[in-house]
Amino acid sequence: EFCSGCDRQFLMGSRCGVGPFCDKLGLHAHHPRNCLFYLRDKEPRDLQKLLTEHGVPFMTEPHDSTEGPKQCVVQLQRETSEGLVDDVCSNEVKEGQAGLCRLHYVEYLAALITKNDVDPLDIFSSDELET
């Protein structure tokens, strides 16, 4: 198992080997602070501001349509009683989020932050910094 945000492997407790404190942890990974793990609850406007400050371009409008979808069209698999089923997200799309729902737009912005090695330090609260 690995993190979809930073590709770090999840390891169980002492198998991690980073330090003795890991023995007390269950399944975990040591994510960099620009990973989706830490950015997933941030507001899109904060992530957009961070990318703008670092000169990283990002989309706000759908790239393949003039009107834009009303529902998120990201393909995914859903687990059902019959097994995995191919589907689309279908969550509500808001203006200025590149035709994606909030969840998938935040994933998109976080991927840009990780890919461009942007340090999100400025958008963390004091509690988040302590963590």
Automatic annotation (TrEMBL):
<dbReference type="InterPro" id="IPR026254">
    <property type="entry name" value="RNF31-like"/>
</dbReference>
<protein>
    <recommendedName>
        <fullName>RNF31 C-terminal domain-containing protein</fullName>
    </recommendedName>
</protein>
<dbReference type="InterPro" id="IPR041031">
    <property type="entry name" value="RNF31_C"/>
</dbReference>
<dbReference type="GO" id="GO:0004842">
    <property type="term" value="F:ubiquitin-protein transferase activity"/>
</dbReference>
<dbReference type="Pfam" id="PF18091">
    <property type="entry name" value="E3_UbLigase_RBR"/>
</dbReference>
<dbReference type="GO" id="GO:0071797">
    <property type="term" value="C:LUBAC complex"/>
</dbReference>
<feature type="domain" description="RNF31 C-terminal">
    <location>
        <begin position="47"/>
        <end position="131"/>
    </location>
</feature>
